[in-house]
Amino acid sequence: MTAYIVRRLFATLPVMAVVALFVFFLLRLAPGDPAAIIAGDDATSEAIAAVRAKLGLDRPLVEQFVVWLWALLQGDMGVSIFSNLPVTRLMAQRVEPTIALTLSTLFVAVSLAIPIGVVAAWKARKLVDRLVMGFAVLGFAMPVFVLAYVLIYFFAVQWQLLPVQGYQPLSAGLWPFAESLILPSVALGVTYMALIARITRASMLEVLQQDYIRTANAKGLATDRVLLLHALKNASVPIVTVIGIGIALLISGVVITETVFNIPGLGRLTVDAVLKRDYPIVQGLILVFAAAKVIVNLVIDISYAFLDPRIRY
Amino acid sequence: MSAILEVRDLHTQFNTLDGVVRAVDGVSFDVARGETLGIVGESGCGKSVTALSILRLIPPETGRIAQGSIRFEGNELTALSEEAMKSLRGHRISMIFQEPMTSLNPVLTVGTQIAENVVRHMGVPWSAARERAREMLDLVRIADAKRRLDEYPHQLSGGMRQRVMIAMALSCDPQVLIADEPTTALDVTIQAQILDLMIELKEKTGTAIVLITHDLGVVAETTERVVVMYAGRKVEEAPVEALFENPLHPYTRGLMRAIPRLDVEADAAGTRPRLQEIPGLVPILTRPIVGCAFAARCELATDRCRATPPPFVDAGGGHIVACWEVKL
What pLDDT score does B288 carry? Predict the structure, then answer.
């Protein structure tokens, strides 16, 4: 097991190297002179030359890369063009809402999807199955921003149960923090819930046909033990895979949700930075998002080995 | 001999796109305490469905027990609640299956799979159940039982997995063990070991065994009494010696003629007589069978055979046969 985990860890290094290379060249290959882009539209040629010298853009490409990578490894992602603040500090300020929103969305999606999928498979082709799966298709088809505005209209505007938008950090107290997350996580989570529920149902249906489920029933085990241990554990590899894909999609989905609910997270930072062409921030965000996806993949891969003892790569 | 399990006029049917399949069509037999009963017949004759019917494990979406009675220790199983059936399964009546490769859960350890049965039915804590599981592995002669408890099925050979199935099935001292083709998927040498083990454990524990097989060799070696099934019906029932010495039903005789024999002399050219297959095919079970189910393939069949199902004739000594043409 340890050897497997170590091997998986090392396998992430080439991926991160490729991402770093891509991010480095992103700025250098962008149309026009990067120094001119960074210096801004109204910059004088002296200002552009100053920027070029400051960023080392007049040096050979390889040297620039080594310098950039070395700084990166020390946690230095450069400085924002507009605010002149270090990119790492800007991202650190925005990371809490995004992590909170991603985790709470995931919680909403998974905690509903798995019971729904299991029940639907257990009662396959019966009324309960048709109802929950119909609901799932509807959820999957609903665009996040539409659902978000519908939820805001009812829960925040009409019934005034929850805040319309905004974000309260954890330091403001557990309830204000949770309250500000409920509507965004539901809006964002419904799509993933539908996706995960469908995969859970399909995977469970296949497993429930297997001989070992007949054996478990022939032992007179309680239905919940047959479903939740004997069947679900066998059905879990595809489910976990989809949850992993879901997390990766969530990271991009967060951009829209944060905008709709006015949450100051990395999604909003991305939108602002792209609109202002604040390249250092965009670079930093790509690196962070890519790293997050690589880590999610790693965790999923490692979880396979725990879920299915036959998996040893 | 008192019967512990009495099956009377069992009808089990499945709904398919082609119509209702009468998989078991009026089968009756008794299982006495501590005896080994063989149920033998071709694939598709309803022997496995009979076994699943006893435990009421027929999937309700497709099949049902349409008629008949199954009494276990005097209690009518077809009338029991699902909860009551669950506390019976794996405890009083347990079952092992044909495919040891797929019948064990691949993601749970052997120890968990045996112990959960004990926890479920004996109401003991997990630690005691694990100890019982270790005892059972010793009993089925799996070496190094303590270490094996923490292994997964894919780490065991086919024969060992079937031993684990037996250990699991016997872990709560059942009164009846139903073994559905327990050795079919195994190598011949392993088959003999598993059968010997089952018989030895039966002697030790007094569990009655219902052994379902298509292999007459297995029947001859291990059972005391035999029920021969054809197309969902019982055609003959006899003590094992009587059946092999004097098979009465034309179908049973056909089965006997299809067994390769080494005790028949080869002729001068060194060839032995050809094995005789039974001509024709098993009837399609979606159509109601009028008369004797075997009539279409039987060389003795008359118009009466095709028109009216034959009643059972008693040949004495517990040997009964359903055939119009049998001469006693």
Answer: 81
For residue A312, give the amino acid letter: R
pLDDT reading at B1 higher than 60: no
User: Whole-model pTM?
Assistant: 0.83
**Considering CB atoms only, which of A125, A211, A225 is closest to B97?**
A211
What tokens were used for B14?
Answer: 């499945």
Distance from CA of B87 to the nearest CA of A (A): 6
Instruction: Note the pLDDT of residue A30.
Output: 67
- CA dist A77 and A175 (Å) reads 35
Q: Which residue has tokens 């050897």?
A: A3
Q: In angstroms, how far is CA A167 from the centroid of its own chain?
A: 18
Q: What is the DSSP string of A21-34?
A: HHHHHHHHHSSS-H
For A51-118, give the DSSP string. Answer: HHHHHTTTS-HHHHHHHHHHHHHTT---B-TTT--BHHHHHHHHHHHHHHHHHHHHHHHHHHHHHHHH
Select the residue of A212, A214, A219 nearest B117 (Cβ to Cβ).
Answer: A219
Question: How many interface pairs between A and B have CB atoms less than 8 angstroms apart?
Answer: 73
The terminus-to-terminus CA distance of chain A in angstroms comes to 10
Q: What is the mean pLDDT of residues B296-317?
A: 91
Residue labelled with tokens 């005391």? B224
A203 contacts in chain B (CB < 8 Å): none
Residue A54 contacts B, CB cutoff 8 Å? no
ipTM of the complex: 0.87
Which residues of chain B from 104 to 133 reach within 8 Å of chain A, CB to CB? Answer: 104-108, 116-117, 120-121
Q: What's the number of CA atoms in the CB half-sphere (13 Å) around residue A89?
A: 7
CA separation, residue A2 to residues A7, A298, A313, B108 (Å)? 9, 14, 12, 20
Shortest distance, CA A206 to any CA of chain B (angstroms): 14
Residues 6+ apart with CB under 8 A from A241: A300
Mean pLDDT to the nearest integer, B220-229: 94
The amino acid that residue B243 corresponds to is L
Residue type, A24: F
Instruction: Name the strand (E) or helix (H) holding B278.
Output: none
Q: Is B157 helix (H, G, I), strand (E, B) or coil?
A: coil
The answer to whether A177 touches A168, Cβ cutoff 8 Å, is yes
Q: What is the mean pLDDT of chain A?
A: 87
Where b means 16+ CB within 10 Å and e means fewer, B138-177 reads: ebbebeebeebbebbbeebeebbbbbbbbbbbbbbebbbb
User: Taking the CA atoms of chain B, what radius of gyration do you get in angstroms?
Assistant: 21
> Is residue A198 pLDDT above 70, yes or no?
yes
Confidence check: pLDDT of A116 > 90? yes
Coil, strand or helix at A213: helix
Question: Which stretch of DSSP H or E encloses residue B206?
Answer: none
What is the rounded average pLDDT for all residues in chain B?
Answer: 90
Distance between CA atoms of residues B223 and B40, nearest Å = 11
Question: Residue B144: in which H helix or E strand, if any?
Answer: none
Whole-number Å distance between alpha carbons of A37 and A270: 18
Nearest neighbour of B89 by CB, restricted to A210, A218, A225? A218
Q: Looking at residue B258, what DSSP letter applies?
A: T
Q: What is the mean pLDDT of residues A154-163?
A: 88
pLDDT-derived band at A69, boundaries 50, 70, 90: confident
Which whole-number Å values give the CA distances from B312 to B65, B226, B307, B319, in the listed order?
Answer: 23, 15, 16, 10
